Recover the amino acids of this structure.
């Protein structure tokens, strides 16, 4: 090697070591040893040296953290070991029960106190980091638990993710953890975005997710992301650790950031003490957490306890209760839905609660406004729990303005001026405008084109608003009379996008009866009822002729739904729209009608199918159950009678177990069907 080359190599190694030491001081010890300017100078020197000597660059060079040219798409990565989720607990009793259940499963005396590792549950994104021979080979999202997206290019830019491990690391090591955005970084990022006229992120989790979903890692490199690791995936050394605590210590020794707040605790009491302590500290943490995770410390016991559906039996996420914050009501106005239903909405001074910024909350109905006596100018308490929509739970009367006025519900539709009809003691308010009401028309068309209805891709809300505003459509059938030139004339369309929309509309003509029925937006007819009607009548004209007495003979169709369906098809404008839809090319295959066996044990039972089936398609199982009189729905609730648990079933099987609902395997289902 020439002297010049030798000198470059020495300088290169010195620079790398210097930068790595500064990274450690800054990110891990939180004690920077040089200014940002000096750091940038060192990095610039390294990048220039690498540009002059490309053969020097290794994948774990600090320069690799600054991001690289954009990818075309995210590759898929199949997880060698599935990435699971966690079961949730909400009350003290849930935690005591979790501990007792584990004692029973492991056949241990209840007097034996189990050791648990308790740590905060970060509100971020789960990630898998795969190392082979000490080098980071990929980073992937959880995805559906089996396959995730390859986000290596973005994860490399996170300065605390080790790119290379000490030689003591097992030859294969998959470490899992959570990527998140600390509060301070989130605030600065949002301020910078808003200053540039961009929209801010609603919460740190969304900001972290948006940062990791970048094809251009140079953008991710500028985002203040952090990571804590907490679990093992695939590993070449089966004796790597005996306890969860040892696992965390090993991760730490290899240079991975581990949440410093984790603690070894004893029994369910120890878990609950830790939970209470952290609930009090939560507001002062630099990152968002939504609960505490408890894990059985002994890994051999973890293995014995095993898994239920997609969650380990040996771990539990103890979720924090709903958060509440105070804010003021700036305005109250109403929204008109597709059936004319009028819903009041409070416009709030934006408030950060339960991890999101809330500026609008539904007030549900007039009776609810009266119950809480909510007025414009009031200081109110907003609550948000988990994914539940935020709501106003109380008014702070001590802060009420002296001149505040009782809210008066509108007597006329704000959109078309028609009378508002109120019934059900203020619970139901409807615009009587019907087809003349622009809001009802727009909402009806948005529903018609939606994914579960006619599924017209590319026909978003703004386009519907524009089509109605320009009077290009006044019924859903008019969508099928639109031409290329009319779409091209709309704002924001070019030749290609206009043609794409025309193609999507064309494709939607070939549909299914259940979809079409749901798309028509018949009041009271949701997806499940639409499917039941399709299976019972087979053709639309048969259903249109059915009177309410006949409709009521179907399981789960009561007098209110039957009357609504009869009224809908008795309306001449609706009949005209249906005829036009068919005249303009909408079509479906008739559905085979199977008579329901009145003696069937499934008659009237609510059934959920979850997971994959091996002997038949889910759609077929659904059809056979329906023909035996069962109602097959998509979500598990206390009204569910049976959950059919197929292969790789997930949270629905878990929920059934938690709610004590009977479950049935595919083999048991087959036996009963036959
Ligand atoms: O989603 C999770 C958050 C935190 C986890 C987790 C965790 O430990 C602190 N641990 C495991 C094992 C899993 N999910 C599956």
């Amino acid at each position: 090697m020439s002297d010049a080359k030798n000198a470059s190599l020495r300088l290169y190694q010195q620079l790398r070591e210097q930068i790595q030491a500064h990274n450690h001081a800054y990110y891990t010890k939180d004690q920077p040893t040089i200014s940002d300017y000096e750091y940038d100078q060192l990095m610039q020197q390294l990048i220039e040296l690498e540009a002059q000597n490309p053969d020097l660059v290794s994948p774990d060079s600090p320069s690799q953290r600054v991001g690289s040219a954009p990818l075309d798409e995210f590759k898929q990565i199949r997880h060698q070991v599935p990435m699971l989720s966690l079961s949730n607990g909400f009350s003290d009793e849930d935690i005591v029960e979790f501990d007792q259940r584990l004692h029973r499963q492991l056949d241990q005396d209840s007097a034996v106190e189990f050791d648990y590792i308790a740590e905060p549950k970060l509100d971020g994104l789960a990630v898998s980091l795969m190392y082979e021979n000490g080098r980071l080979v990929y980073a992937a999202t959880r995805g559906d638990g089996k396959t995730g997206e390859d986000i290596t290019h973005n994860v490399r830019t996170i300065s605390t993710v080790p790119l290379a491990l000490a030689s003591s690391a097992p030859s294969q090591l998959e470490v899992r953890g959570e990527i998140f955005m600390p509060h301070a970084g989130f605030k600065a990022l949002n301020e910078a975005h808003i200053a540039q006229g961009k929209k801010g992120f609603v919460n740190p989790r969304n900001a972290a997710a948006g940062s990791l979903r970048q094809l251009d890692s140079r953008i991710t490199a500028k985002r203040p992301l952090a990571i804590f690791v907490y679990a093992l995936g695939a590993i070449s050394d089966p004796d790597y650790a005996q306890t969860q605590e040892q696992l965390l210590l090993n991760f730490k020794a290899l240079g991975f950031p581990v949440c410093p707040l984790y603690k070894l605790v004893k029994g369910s009491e120890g878990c609950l003490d830790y939970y209470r302590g952290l609930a009090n500290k939560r507001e002062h943490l630099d990152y968002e957490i939504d609960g505490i995770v408890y894990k059985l410390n002994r890994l051999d016991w973890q293995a014995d306890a095993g898994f239920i559906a997609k969650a380990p039996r040996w771990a539990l996420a103890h979720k924090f209760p709903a958060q509440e914050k105070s804010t003021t009501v700036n305005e109250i106005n109403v929204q008109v839905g597709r059936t004319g239903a009028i819903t009041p909405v409070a416009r709030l001074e934006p408030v950060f609660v339960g991890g999101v910024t809330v500026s609008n909350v539904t007030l549900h109905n007039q009776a609810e406004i009266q119950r809480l006596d909510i007025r414009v100018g009031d200081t109110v308490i907003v609550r948000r729990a988990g994914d539940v929509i935020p709501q106003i739970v109380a008014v702070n009367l001590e802060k009420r303005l002296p001149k505040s006025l009782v809210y008066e519900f509108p007597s006329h539709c704000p959109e078309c001026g028609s009378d508002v009809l109120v019934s059900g003691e203020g619970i139901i308010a409807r615009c009587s405008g019907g087809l003349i009401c622009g809001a009802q028309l727009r909402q009806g068309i948005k529903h018609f084109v939606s994914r579960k209805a006619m599924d017209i891709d590319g026909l978003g809300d703004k386009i519907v608003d524009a089509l109605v505003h320009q009077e290009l459509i006044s019924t859903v059938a008019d969508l099928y009379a639109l031409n290329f030139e009319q779409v091209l004339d709309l704002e924001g369309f070019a030749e290609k996008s206009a043609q794409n929309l025309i193609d999507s509309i064309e494709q939607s003509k070939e549909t299914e009866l259940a979809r079409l029925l749901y798309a028509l937006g018949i009041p009271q007819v949701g997806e499940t009822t639409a499917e039941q009607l399709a299976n019972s009548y087979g053709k639309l004209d048969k259903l249109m002729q059915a009177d309410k007495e006949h409709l009521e003979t179907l399981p789960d169709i009561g007098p209110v739904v039957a009357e609504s369906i009869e009224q809908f098809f008795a309306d001449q404008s609706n009949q005209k729209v249906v005829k036009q839809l068919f005249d303009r090319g909408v079509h479906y295959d008739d559905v085979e009608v199977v008579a329901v066996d009145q003696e069937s044990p499934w008659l009237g039972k609510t059934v959920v199918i979850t997971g994959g089936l091996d002997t038949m398609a889910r759609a077929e199982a659904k059809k056979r159950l329906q023909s035996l009189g069962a109602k097959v729905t998509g979500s598990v609730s206390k009204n569910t009678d049976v959950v059919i648990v197929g292969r790789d079933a997930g949270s629905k099987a878990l929920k059934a177990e938690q709610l004590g609902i009977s479950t049935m395997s595919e083999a048991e289902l087959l036996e009963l069907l036959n």
Summary: Residues 332 and 346 are 5 Å apart (CA to CA). The chain is about 35% helix and 20% strand. The pocket of 8-methoxy-2,3-dimethylquinoxalin-5-ol is lined by residues 84, 86, 119, 121, 126, 178, 230-231, 293, 312, 315 (CB under 6 Å).
